[in-house]
Amino acid sequence: MNHSRWDPANIRYLFYGVTPAETTYSNIDLIPNFTDLATPSMLLLVIIEYLFLDERKYAFNDTITSINAGMFSVLSKYAGKSISAALYVSLHPQINILHLDPSSTTTWLLCFLAKDLAYYLAHRFIHEGGVFWSFHQMHHSSEYYNLSTALRQGALQDLSTWIFDIMWCPFIPPNVFIVHQYFNVLYQFWIHTEVIPPLGPLEYFLNTPSAHRVHHGRNPYCIDRNYGGTLIIWDRLFGTYAAERPDEQIAYGLVTPVASFDHLYCQFFEFKAIGFDKPRMKDANGKEVFVGWKEKLRAIFGPPGYFPGTKTHWFFFWKCVDDSEEGIPEVKGPISKYDRPCRLWLRVYLLIHFLLLIAAFIKFNELRSASTTWEDLFVYCSFFIISFQMYGYFFDCRWFALPFESFRLLSIFAYGLYISEAALTSFALASFVCLCSLAQAGQILIFDEKKTVIVNGNGNCTSEVGDKKSN
Ligand SMILES: [Zn+2]
Ligand SMILES: [Zn+2]
């Protein structure tokens, strides 16, 4: 099997297009990082969709935020491996009871089903398990639905779902399980698109773009529906399936939109909202909504839509609401999407830095190995996270975006001096000059919260705030 990142045939990894024989490995260390191998295909498909799709279906700020989230989720894994994979490998020798042949096709097929069921349960849990929703909501925070949305992943999601993979550890060999772990996730890339219509009979057993569009909707009928990974049979079996309604436009995103591109805020705001604010919630008369410690625990660990009086029932080891449409507002068109203006030359500046950021990320992944020093890891991870934040601040038109970017460029300059890399210091200096010119030319806009207007660097009002509308 070819393991070059630039092999065009790698595109088939995005469709589970592999045979058991070619993905059977005698040793775990021989399993390639399939996510890494499929990354160029994913980026190419995002670019093609971006160029050819109606501009209302894509947005510059949203797409960059989604791709940044994809990079962040890879950064949070050690050498590309998830926490559950590492745990699986270390636990299997101690708790293996079935001793299945790892090279048999039957084991491979059995594992395909087992991993997909584990995904269904894990996915359902992080939707319905109260504060555990915070690990996953990032994936649903985009108000657009396109291939870049697939990359928008919760950075720490693995921390909340590993138990569902470990459930199979006593039965299935790790070298088969890890292969399916890769393909189960990669398969879900192509289903994030509005381009592909319902696929007829395939809708009965496969997770398709149509089925997953429903999963990303905030219309009442879409809530808590279609959790499947590769197959949709689990949703049909456990009663969570809903077909896309051709007569009702889907509004994508969170029930209460996050209305920000601030990366760390988007990743983590829900932990505070559910884990801290919700149990302390007060009604219009100033009385506590969740009275007593039992109700407060229900506020944190009950379904995200739970309030005193909401009817719930057990599923596996968590509770879900009886009526998932209860309390969900109807969607009325035209649908507004959060947006702040970003002027042309600032876009050009951000795009150039974004392409370089992707190049640096690919390089970092190549260099990254168990022997990478902590110092290098710290420098690279800080650089990427600071860069993700910079994009969020410009897209939100925050007043401190300009000083923050100046600080980022100064840090790159200082690091270039430290490692005696003239190209890096020159690049940082040239970028700083460009940034100052952009500020001077009124290209950098600031959102004034008190006046709800956008002003440029000179304090002149440039436009009223208005969200994008689509129908
Ligand atoms: Zn989900
Ligand atoms: Zn999705």
What does this structure look like?
The structure is a single chain. The protein has 471 residues and is mostly helical. It folds into two domains: 337 residues, no CATH class; 132 residues, no CATH class. Helices cover 48% and strands 6% of the residues. Helix 2 runs antiparallel to helix 14, helix 13 runs antiparallel to helix 14 and helix 14 runs antiparallel to helix 15. The two termini are 46 Å apart. The model has no long low-confidence stretch (mean pLDDT 92). The structure holds zinc ion (2 copies).
What's the arrangement of secondary structure elements?
Layout: H1 34-52, H2 60-75, H3 83-95, H4 105-128, H5 137-140, H6 147-151, H7 157-166, H8 174-187, H9 209-216, H10 233-238, H11 263-277, H12 292-301, E1 312-315, E2 318-321, E3 335-337, H13 344-367, H14 374-395, H15 401-418, H16 422-440, E4 445-448, E5 453-456, E6 461-464, E7 468-470
Antiparallel strand pairs: 1-2, 3-7, 4-5, 5-6
The structure holds zinc ion (2 copies).
